[in-house]
Specification:
By secondary structure, the protein is an alpha/beta fold. It folds into 3 domains: 2-181, Alpha-D-Glucose-1,6-Bisphosphate, Chain A, domain 3 (3-Layer(aba) Sandwich); 185-407, Alpha-D-Glucose-1,6-Bisphosphate, subunit A, domain 3 (Alpha-D-Glucose-1,6-Bisphosphate, Chain A, domain 3), CATH 3.40.120.10; 409-542, Alpha-D-phosphohexomutase, C-terminal domain (TATA-Binding Protein). Helices cover 33% and strands 26% of the residues. The protein is built from 19 helices and 27 strands. The strands form 6 sheets. A 7-stranded mixed sheet has the order 2-6-5-3-4-9-8, with helices on both faces. Strands 20-21-24-25-26-19-27 form a 7-stranded antiparallel sheet. β20 and β21 form a beta hairpin. The longest helix has 15 residues, at 378-392. It binds 1,6-di-O-phosphono-alpha-D-glucopyranose.
């Protein structure tokens, strides 16, 4: 087998976004496109010769093809071993788990997360470091810089590796070990949660539905929920991963997980419903005819954490992304532990967890997780909820309502305007920045703007600074409106408008969030000139 050095030219658009490089499949299919990016990773991460890499993805279209290329490039770049998920499958949290458990140099995860899959849909790739977490901005910047001046890549001339059965083969001088993608992760979950109590709950007539959305979590949910925990067959829906997710949009929210939503709001609704996304790191939690916002979910998990064996000794701290509601901050205050506010992107939590400053992390974008791995973790959140439900023996809705009664309610909603022309979206953001001086101190009905800024974060561990992380309008009563452009879309620009209002008065907690946030929504539309600038009179998705 021969190592080939292939001449190539740089592509200008290989800048990793919020979580790796995500593009349409035809972009990745351009000659040398994937290879350039993989070589840029290898050139930037300085792996010692003989290092071990973890490799897997969410099974979407192009996953198998990309894995073969990456294996041959890893062999040509001096790696000693690759641990690859059987069938090329590893959920994002499982990949993080395997990197940590076997103390590998890092891993490459193939996923475009919650974005649709298929020949004309999305694909993605990212590098995770030895802590199991997404590479820091310093590393992703180095990868991007390298991609702009790359002139050649190395690849082994070899046949494809058989990936569908566990076992070990050699690829040149590199060992490829095909591993069971589920076992290590399922064992980790069993070590964190009271499986006995959850099994008893599920055996007592408590009914659950988990919608895997034809994405990667199907086999994980089937093994854990139906096999190890004894949930009746059929509790896991859409459990077979498909390359195009069955034509669906594997994003667990009220719009895209509509099959589950219909079941959970139907006449004979089960007691608990949940869904996860393409690569298994996001989650949505539902009770009987009741939606738990991701921000509330983080706060409830934090307040009840000690009910789960893995968290019995308490939490070191909590972190949330800036646009996530401050519900978790109130719990942190009550527990007398620190709460950190980071920019959007799980990569910002890694340093805090490595330094032992936080145990739980969460984001409004349906992401919750803890220091058990360095990615958000969809099934973990589901099991945490089931553990709490088994311990408290109350319905989801009453647990959340009691939480609001104790801590107050942070009404919350996010409006997404997808596929906007980039110029219009950038213009709107610039208009807001230009308005900071005139907006500060202005009164809108009962709301007064106290300050406006563009969020900037200084990492308390390594001192790195991340600027321009979202425009914030902060009101005197603690309410907030935030405008941000998504870093994960592949189609024009996606504008996200985040709305939050705090209500201490329990007699108001029954209100619908859209009702409670009406005035703030009107202010957001007015100050941003959204309709005028984008031509949109309604959002694509409301969560
Ligand atoms: C990624 C990141 C998350 C982030 C989310 C949304 O999630 O890992 O930290 O909150 O994108 O980002 P944006 O608002 O920039 O689109 P995932 O599930 O797509 O990997």
């Amino acid at each position: 087998m021969k190592i080939l050095t292939v001449d190539t030219c740089p592509f200008p658009d290989q800048k990793p976004g919020t979580s790796g490089l995500r593009k349409k499949v035809p972009v990745f299919q351009q000659p040398h496109y994937l290879e350039n990016f993989v070589q840029s990773i290898f050139d930037s991460i300085q792996a010692p010769p003989g290092a071990t890499l973890v490799l897997g993805g969410d099974g979407r279209y192009y996953n198998r093809h990309a894995i073969q290329i990456i294996l041959k490039m890893a062999a040509a770049n001096g790696f000693g071993k690759v641990l690859a998920g059987r069938g090329g499958i590893l959920s994002t949290p499982a990949a993080s788990c395997v990197i940590r458990k076997y103390q590998t140099f890092g891993g490459i995860i193939l996923s475009a997360s919650h974005n649709p899959g298929g020949p004309t849909e999305d694909f993605g790739i990212k590098f995770n470091s030895s802590n199991g977490g997404p590479a820091t901005e310093t590393v992703t910047e180095a990868i991007f810089a390298r991609s702009k001046n790359i002139s050649a890549y190395r690849i082994l001339e070899a046949d494809d590796v058989a990936l569908d059965q566990a076992g070990t083969t050699m690829l040149g001088n590199m060992q490829v070990e095909v591993i069971d993608p589920v076992a290590d992760y399922a064992d980790l979950m069993e070590s964190l949660f009271d499986f006995g109590a959850i099994r008893a709950l599920l055996g007592s007539g408590f009914r659950i539905r988990f919608d895997a959305m034809h994405a990667v979590n199907g086999p994980y949910a089937w093994e854990i929920l139906e096999q190890r925990l004894g949930a009746p067959a059929g509790s896991v829906l859409n459990a077979v991963p498909l390359e195009d997710f069955g034509g669906g949009h594997p994003d667990p929210n009220l719009t895209y997980a509509h099959d589950l939503v219909e079941i959970m709001y139907g006449a004979d609704a089960p007691d608990f419903g949940a869904a996860s996304d393409g690569d298994g790191d996001r989650n949505m939690i539902l009770g009987k005819r009741f939606f738990v916002t991701p921000s509330d979910s983080l706060a409830v998990l934090a307040a009840n954490a000690t009910l789960a064996p893995g968290y019995r000794s308490g939490l070191a701290g909590i972190a949330r992304s800036m646009p996530t509601s401050a519900a978790a901050d109130r719990v942190a205050r009550a527990l007398n532990i620190p709460c950190y506010e980071t920019p959007t992107g799980w990569k910002f939590f890694g340093n805090l967890m490595d330094a032992g400053k936080v145990t739980l992390c969460g984001e409004e974008s349906f992401g919750t997780g803890s220091s058990h791995v360095r990615e958000k973790d969809g099934l973990w959140a589901v099991l945490f909820w089931l553990n709490i439900l088994a311990a408290r023996k109350q319905p989801v809705e009453s647990i959340v309502r009691e939480h609001w009664a104790k801590f107050g309610r942070n009404f919350y909603s996010r409006y997404d305007y997808e596929a906007l022309p980039s110029d219009a979206a950038n213009g709107l953001m610039q208009h807001l920045r230009d308005s900071f001086t005139s907006l500060a101190g202005r009164q809108f009905g009962r709301y007064a703007i106290q300050t406006c800024d563009d969020f900037s974060y200084t990492d308390p561990v390594d001192g790195s600074i991340s600027k321009n992380q979202g425009v914030r309008l902060l009101f005197s009563d603690g309410s907030r409106i935030i405008f941000r452009l998504s870093g994960t879309g592949t189609d024009g620009a996606t504008l996200r408008v985040y709305l939050e209002a705090y209500e201490a008065d329990a007699s108001m907690h029954h209100l619908d969030a859209q009702q409670a946030l009406q005035e703030l929504i009107a202010i957001a539309l007015q100050v941003s000139e959204l309709e005028l600038r984008t031509g949109r009179n309604k959002p694509t998705v409301i969560t």
